[in-house]
Amino acid sequence: MSILDAPAVQVADTDDLSVWPRSTRPVPGGDLTVGGVSLAEAADRFGTPVYVLDEQEIRERCRAYRTAFPEAEVVYAAKAFLCRAMAHWVEEEGLGLDVCSAGELALAVTTGFPPERIVLHGNAKSPEDLSTALRLGVGRIVVDSASEIARLAALTPAGSRQKVMVRVVPGVAAGVHVKVRTGTDDQKFGLSITDGSAQHAVTRILDQPHLELVGLHCHIGSQITTPKPYVAAVRRMVGLLARIRDQHGVALPQLDIGGGHGIAYRPSEEELNIAVLAGRVRTELEDGCARGGLPVPRLTLEPGRAIVGPAGVVVYRVLAVKRTGDRTFVAVDGGMSDNPRPALYGVRYAPRLIGRPASAPPRPVTVVGRHCEAGDVLADEVALPGDVRPGDLLAVPAAGAYHLSMASGYNLVGRPPVVAVADGIARVLVRRESLEDMSRRDVGL
C-alpha cells in the first residue's frame, strides 16, 4: 500500500509500535520511552517541539545495510539529516557519505570524516561546491551536466586527477509522488540514455586528462518499497556499461544505484526489504555482466531515509483545540517550518497522545501547525482521544528524515533541537534556534 492510498481516517492502534524506534516501550500513565528515555520527560527538559533520535537504531540500520550488501559500498545520503554526531556515527559504522553542497561537505570533513569516502553530487553544483570538493580531496564527484565537465576540468589542479562518475537517467519511473521521481527524462537530474547525452558525457570525460571516469551513477526516485525498479535500472545501466566498453575499450569499475529506499510512516504501510533488494540486485548485476562479457563492477548504494527516518520521533505540545463545522483541529507548537513534507508531498503520519492516559474514545481530528498557511497540516483526519486538550503532548514517529534538513525560518519560528537518546541518557546534538540566532543575520536598516 502506498502512503497516498490510505483510508480517510487512520485509527491509531495504541499497542502497535511497528513504525516507532525498536527501543520504544510503553510505560504506565500513557508515556513512551525511546532508548530508555521518557518522551514526556524529554519534552519537559528540552522544550517542544523536540526531535529525538535513537542512536542505537541508527547504528543498527547502518549495520543491517553492511550485512545485506557485504561486498558493496554503502554511503549515507546526508540530505536526509546531517549533524556532526550523525557524521560521526556513520563513519564509525563503516559507511561512506553522500553530500550535495560545500556546506554538507565542510561539516563532514571538519568533523573528521575521511574525504576520500565522500561522494559529491547535485544537479547544479556551484563553483564553490566544486572548488571545495577539490580542495578537501573528496573521493568522487558525480557529473550531472555537460557544462560541469569543462568547469570541473578547469578547476582541477595541474598534475592531479579527480575521480568522477556520470549521473545517468535510466528511464525508470519509481517513487510514490511525482515530485520524488528522478529516473525519467522529464525531471532536472542526470543525463539521458535515450537522447545520447549520457554517452556524450562519457566521451568528453574520457578526453579530459585531469578527470578519471570510474563509473556510472543513477538515482531513480524516493520512498520506493519494491526491488523491481532497481532491477530494471541495473539492467539498463549494465547495458550502457557494455556500450561504453565496446565504444571506448573501457570497463568501468563502479556502479552507483543511488537510494530512495522506502520506510513505513504508519502501521498499515510497507517498507523496502533490503535483504530482498540485495539478492535481486546482485543477481541482476552478475547475470547482466555475464551476458555482456563484463567484469562485475563494485556496487554503491546511498540510503538516507531508511537509516535515520525510523530512528526519529518528534514531540509537539498542543496549543489549541478548535471545532469548525464538522471538523476538529488540534493545533501544535510546530508545523511546516520543521516538517514541510505533508505540504509538499501529502505525506500522512500517525501522531499519538503521550504523557497521560486517554480517558475518552478516539475521534477524527486534523493536527495542524502554528504557521499562517492553510496548508500547514501535519496529520489530516487521524484518530486521537476525544479529550485531547491544550497542554497535551503529541509524538510522531518516523520523523528522522527530511524534517529538520528541510526546515525553514517561516514566521521567525526557531528550528527545534535534536536530542540523542541511548541507554537511558539524553544529550543535545543540535540546540534550539533562538530569536537571537535569527536576528544576527539581519544586519542593517
Mean pLDDT: 92
Helix content: 25-40%
Oligomer: single chain
Rg on CA atoms, Å = 23 Å
Question: Stretches where pLDDT falls below 50 for ≥5 residues?
Answer: 1-12, 179-183
Count of beta strands: 21
Which structural class should the secondary elements be placed in? alpha/beta
Terminal Cα span: 53 Å
Shape: globular
Number of helical elements: 12
**Major sheet summary line:** 9 strands, mixed
Strand composition percent = 15-25%
Give a short summary of the structure.
The chain has 445 residues and is an alpha/beta fold.
What would you note in describing this structure?
The chain is an alpha/beta fold. The protein has helices at 39-46, 55-68, 84-92, 102-111, 127-136, 146-155, 197-206, 228-248, 274-292, 305-308, 341-345, 435-439; strands spanning 25-27, 31-34, 37-38, 50-54, 73-77, 96-99, 118-120, 140-143, 162-169, 191-192, 211-217, 254-256, 298-301, 312-324, 327-332, 352-354, 362-368, 377-385, 393-396, 418-422, 425-430. The strands form three sheets. Strands 4, 14, 15, 16, 17, 18, 19, 20 and 21 form a nine-stranded mixed beta sheet that branches. Strands 5-6-7-8-9-11-12-13 form an eight-stranded parallel β-barrel, surrounded by five helices. The protein is globular, with a radius of gyration of 23 Å. The model is unreliable at 1-12 and 179-183 (pLDDT under 50).
